[in-house]
Write a structure and sequence with these properties.
This protein is of the alpha/beta class. It has helices at residues 20-29, 43-49, 87-95, 185-196, 205-220, 233-246, 264-275, 286-293, 299-320, 333-336, 376-385, 390-393, 413-432, 485-498; strands at 9-14, 33-38, 53-56, 82-85, 99-115, 131-144, 150-155, 162-165, 170-173, 225-228, 250-256, 279-284, 326-328, 366-368, 441-455, 458-471, 479-480, 502-507. The chain folds into three domains: 9-196, 3-Layer(aba) Sandwich (Rossmann fold); 219-394, Rossmann fold, CATH 3.40.50; 413-507, GMP Synthetase, Chain A, domain 3, CATH 3.30.300.10. The chain has 14 helices and 18 strands. Strand 1, helix 1 (20-29) and strand 2 (33-38) form a beta-alpha-beta unit. Bound molecules: xanthosine-5'-monophosphate. It catalyses: XMP + L-glutamine + ATP + H2O = GMP + L-glutamate + AMP + diphosphate + 2 H(+).
């Protein structure tokens, strides 16, 4: 956990909204450290955290219903500013003596507010009389204000779209400032944190780097650390950061399972061993993995086989170097936020995920997790701060089981080689067109289907390759990237001409849901 004593901090109490994490990201972008806790957080813990302000998030419940969530009352008794958003506004108003009602005028999506009066939240942004675009998502609305509050803005469906109690510095907004569809939302939040709460904006990656290094040294002492390196952003940034802290006490283990992308292994070795001088064990285990994958066609069995072998090989290598006291993991903040379950029920397993962090619990090493306070975009910023090359810091996510889950049916070395070639042509064209950063993930899939084609005067009977490219913010949902036909035909032409074994190319136009990003 971050040493907070030196930073201003804001506490976000989560009522289960889908977009609570966006509040935190907006705050962090303006240099404010914040944490998300469930609304059930203990009063003493909140006081100990000593935030400069508290934000109550939105949520799916209805304050009108019996037993619906409430903020701990201490929130309103600490003498610090409070901002309630949507459900947060409603529960704040209820708890302070106002009234909420179910509305017959629900508002979902884009809406407009009429700004009635000036207030600290809208300063230098919205003038009285202005009509401003916001994003609403609510059924209930505040119907009577608690004492001390006044109306700042109204909308058609919410007469109390924005309310303020200037003396206590309590603010409530019915719309969602954290989403991009509220164009001034980030600036409104910044007014809350900076102007109202007095935060300095002192959360920078340079400061984080220095503090993280000190923390790692204090935790590890003269112990030994091992880190599973995959070449992905998280494990790469974690490795370089830990190396900066403890140098040769760190050994990285890179397991090449034979289903990496073209040139990836060489790049990992060149970057970490040659450029950063990190002790790196590079184990080529491709024969083992491909041998055990022979005949395996079931997607889950493929994933499980790779996951099992990965652990076996990792343990072997770790024993060879004489073990270690600590295991480094690239755990990120979204993995550790205590979630508020909106539905209560367990979720079904769509796929059993594997990544380098998925190591067995009985390894009896202590964990070093230097990124557990960071969001993905902050990890990238830290990577740049540490001098990691852009090809690593900005790269698309790549799944732990690698190309194996992009080859439906049996995986063979020959198929892997065919796919590597098609994939690198596709990515090369995406980069050349300047589209790489606009896309969350792009890759080729080698289908277990052969089709007839004609090349020159001859008949071909070769495989089909599918191309996929999606936009996303977190991989949970995804939209198809709308390439131009001209771009797609250029890529298809190159693949069919340059990759022996592929004679047809298709483009996958399925969003997630109902599709998933990977094919298996
Ligand atoms: P799906 O295919 O479930 O993927 O829509 C969502 C995101 O997760 C990545 N992915 C994985 N990442 N280990 C990982 O580290 C895995 O086993 C794994 N499977 C899928 C996928 O590439 C996408 O970014």
């Amino acid at each position: 956990m971050t040493d907070l004593s030196s930073h201003d901090r804001i506490l976000i109490l989560d009522f289960g909204s889908q977009v609570t994490q966006l509040i935190a990201r907006r705050l962090r972008e303006s240099g404010v450290y914040c944490e998300i806790w469930p609304f059930t957080a203990d009063a003493a813990r909140i006081q100990l955290f000593a935030p400069k302000g508290i934000i109550l998030s939105g949520g799916p419940a209805s304050t009108v219903d019996e037993g619906s969530p409430r903020a701990p009352q201490v929130v309103f008794e600490m003498g610090i500013p409070v901002l309630g958003i949507c459900y947060g506004q409603q529960t704040m108003c209820m708890q302070l003596g106002g009234r909420v009602e179910k509305s017959d005028h629900q508002e979902y999506g884009r809406a407009y507010v009429e700004v009635k009066e000036a207030c600290a939240l809208t300063q230098a942004l919205w003038a009285p009389g202005a009509r401003e675009q916001v994003w609403m998502s609510h059924g209930d609305r505040v119907a009577a204000l608690p004492e001390g509050f006044r109306i700042v803005a109204t909308s058609e469906g919410a007469p109390y779209a924005m309310v303020a109690d200037d003396d206590r510095k309590f603010y409530g907004i019915q719309f969602h400032p954290e989403v991009v569809h509220t164009p001034h939302g980030a600036a409104l939040l910044k007014n809350f944190t900076h102007a109202v709460c007095g935060c300095q904006g002192d959360w920078t990656m340079a400061a984080f780097r220095a503090e993280a290094i000190a923390r790692i040294r204090a935790q590890v002492g003269d112990g030994k650390v091992i880190c599973g390196l995959s070449g992905g952003v998280d494990s790469s940034v974690a490795a370089v950061l830990i190396h900066e802290a403890i140098g040769d006490q760190l050994t990285c283990i890179y397991v090449d399972h034979g289903v990496m992308r073209a040139g990836e292994t060489e790049q990992v070795v060149a970057t970490f061993r040659d450029r950063f001088n990190i002790k790196l064990v590079h184990r080529d285990a491709s024969d083992l993995f491909l041998g055990q994958l022979a005949g395996v066609t079931d997607p889950e069995l493929k994933r499980k086989t790779i996951g099992r072998l990965f652990i076996e090989v990792f343990e072997e290598e770790q024993e060879k170097i004489g073990g270690a006291d600590f295991l480094a993991q690239g755990t990120l903040y979204p993995d550790v936020i205590e979630s508020v379950s909106a539905t209560g029920g367990p979720s079904v397993t769509i796929k059993s995920h594997h990544n380098v962090g998925g190591l067995p619990e009985d390894m009896r090493m202590k964990l070093v997790e230097p990124l557990r306070d960071l969001f993905k975009d902050e990890v990238r910023a830290l990577g740049r701060e540490l001098g990691l090359p852009e090809e690593i810091v900005g790269r698309h996510p790549f799944p732990g089981p690698g190309l194996a889950i992009r080859i439906p049916g049996e995986v063979t070395r020959e198929k892997v080689q065919i796919l590597q070639k098609a994939d690198s042509i596709y990515l090369e064209e995406i980069r050349a067109a300047g589209l790489y950063d606009a896309i969350w993930q792009a890759f080729a899939v080698l289908l277990p289907v052969k089709t007839v084609g004609v090349m020159g005067d001859g008949r071909t009977y070769d495989s089909v390759c599918a191309l996929r490219a999606v936009t996303s913010t977190d991989g949970m949902t995804a939209d198809v990237y709308p390439f131009s036909m001209e771009f797609l035909t250029r890529v298809a032409g190159r693949i069919v001409n340059e990759v022996r074994g592929i004679n047809r190319v298709t483009y996958d136009i399925t969003s997630k849901p109902p599709g998933t990003i990977e094919w298996e």
